[in-house]
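Dock 2-acetamido-2-deoxy-beta-D-glucopyranose; give full complex structure.
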Amino acid sequence: MMTGLKTLCLLAVGAVVLSGAQAQFISVAPGGSGFTSDTCENVALALYQSWECVEAGAGVTGGGPNGLATQFAAARKANLNTVRFNAFATMEGQNLQLPSGRYNATLLVGLDQAIAEAADAGLKIILTLATNWDYTGTASDTKAFYTNLSRTAGGPDDFWTDNGAITAYLAHVKNITSRVNTVNGLAYNEDPAIMAYDLINEGRCDSSNCTATDIQNWIERVAPVVKTYIPRQLLTVGQEGFWQADNCAANTQNPVPNNEGGSVSWPIQTGQNFLSNHAVDAIDFTSVHLAPVNWARTDNVFSTAWLNGHSDQSTIIQKPMILELFSTQIGADGFTQTNSSNLYKLVYAITEASINTDSPIRGIGFQLWDKVRLSPNAAGVDNKTIVSSTSPAWEDTIVPFAGRIANRCPASGPASAPAPAPSSTAASARRHLLQAARRIAPSTTPSASADAPAPSYNPATINSQVGKHLEVVCVVCGMSAAT
Ligand SMILES: *[C@@H]1O[C@H](CO)[C@@H](O)[C@H](O)[C@H]1NC(C)=O
Ligand SMILES: *[C@@H]1O[C@H](CO)[C@@H](O)[C@H](O)[C@H]1NC(C)=O
Ligand SMILES: *[C@@H]1O[C@H](CO)[C@@H](O)[C@H](O)[C@H]1NC(C)=O
Ligand SMILES: *[C@@H]1O[C@H](CO)[C@@H](O)[C@H](O)[C@H]1NC(C)=O
Ligand SMILES: *[C@@H]1O[C@H](CO)[C@@H](O)[C@H](O)[C@H]1NC(C)=O
Ligand SMILES: *[C@@H]1O[C@H](CO)[C@@H](O)[C@H](O)[C@H]1NC(C)=O
C-alpha cells in the first residue's frame, strides 16, 4: 500500500503536469483522504445509475445518441456530476461480445457514443466492466459468458478461478480500456471523463462451488493487471460490500447476522469480504451498494450502521469510499413513498456529513432515474426502484444535495477554497483513525485533542498483508489477536 500510495501521488502530480487546463483526471488524495482533480481539491460525487447506454448509443433504444444527450444534459442541469453505467449491453440479443470472442462493432460504437455524450455534457463516468447478473441467460460480459469461452471451465462460478475465463476477461478489459473512441478520438484510458471502473458489478458466489477465498484471489490476481491498463484512472471492485464471518462486522452490520436460524446467512454465502477485497493495493477506493428493501432491512439502524461500518473500515485501509448504488423499491413489502423519502433523507445526510467532515464517504448514487429512457420491460430493471423526477426523494433530497456539492467546486476555473480545506495528509489520516476508533469503542473515551495518540497499529504493516487481514479486523472490532 505504501508503494501504491507513492505511485498514486506521482500520478496525481503527473496528471496536473501533463493534462493542462482542460483535462481533469480524478486522483485519490495522499493518505486516501478523498478525491482530487486539478481544479478541485476535494471532489465529491452526486451520482446516478443509467441503463442501456450502449444500446442507446447504438440507436437500438432510448432515443439513440440524442436521447442520451438529452438525459445527460438533464443530469447536469440538476447538478448531478457523475453517471455510472455498464460498458456492455443488457438487452436480449444485444451482446457486445460474441461467442466467437469477437465484438459486435455496432455496439462498440454505441459504447463510444455513450462515453462521448456523457463527457460532452460534463459528467464523470464510472464504467462497469462485467456483471454477476445474467438477465437474459445468454448475455455477454457475465460470468457464464467467460466460462463458456473457456474449455477448462464448468459452471459460471468457475469465472473466479478458471485460467481460461480469467485470461478472456483480462483480454477484453485490455481491449476496451485501450480502445480509441471513434466519436471523440480519445483512448478510453486517456479520457479524463472516465473517472473509474468497477471490476464487476455485484460479483458473488452463486453456488457452493465458490468460496470467499476464490473471490479474494481473483481480485488479487486481476486488479493489479487492470490497473496497469488504466494508470491515470481509478479502480474499484463494484460489490455490495458484505462481510465474511472473520470480520466482526458480519454479525452486526450485514443485513442478517451469520448463522441466524442455524444456517450460514445469505450475505456470507455471497463470498464477498469488504475489507480484504478492498485492501488490495490496486483497488484505489472502496465502494458499496445499499438496497434496504431488497435486503429486508428498511430500518434506519441498519442503513446507518452499514454506512458507518464501511466508512470505518475504509479508514483503516486509508481509501475514500463511494456509496455507488442506493436503491429502494416503492410498493414492495409495504414500503411506501414516505418510507422511501425518509430513507433517502437519512442516507444522503450521512453521506453529506461525511463529505463535510473530511471522512471517507465521498459520494452517493441512486437507482434509477426516470429520465433514463428504458426499453420496454428492460432486462435487469425493477420498476419499483425508479426515482420519479416529481418525487420527494428527487425534489427534497437528491437535487438540493447535488446543488450543494456543485457549489464546492465550480465546473470551471480553479478550486475556490472549498470548506473544509484538506489538512495535511498525516493529520487527516490520523483524524480518520481517531473518528473510527471513537465510533467503534465509545467506552475508551478518547481525547478530543488532535494530539491524542493514534491507535497502536501500523497501516503499512496491515496493508502489506492483503488476505491476512485479521489484525485489521481485530483493531476494528476491538478484539484481541488471540481470538
Ligand atoms: C483484443 O485485443 C487482442 C490483442 O490484445 C486482439 O488479439 C483481439 O483480436 C482483440 N479482440 C477483438 C475482438 O478485437
Ligand atoms: C449487433 O448489434 C446490432 C445493433 O444492436 C444488432 O442489430 C445486431 O443484430 C448485432 N449483431 C450480432 C451478430 O449480434
Ligand atoms: C453458456 O452456455 C450454456 C450452455 O451452452 C448456455 O445455455 C448459456 O446460454 C451460455 N451463457 C452465456 C452467457 O453465453
Ligand atoms: C464446480 O466446479 C467444477 C470444477 O471446476 C465444475 O466442473 C462445475 O461445473 C462447477 N459447478 C458450478 C455450479 O459452478
Ligand atoms: C414505513 O414507515 C412507518 C412509519 O415510520 C413504519 O412504521 C414502517 O415500519 C415503515 N415500513 C417499512 C417497510 O419500513
Ligand atoms: C416498467 O416500466 C416501463 C416503462 O414505463 C414499462 O414499459 C414496463 O412495462 C414496466 N414493467 C413492468 C413489469 O411493469
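Observed: Residues 1-21, 412-470, 479-483 have pLDDT under 50 and may be disordered.
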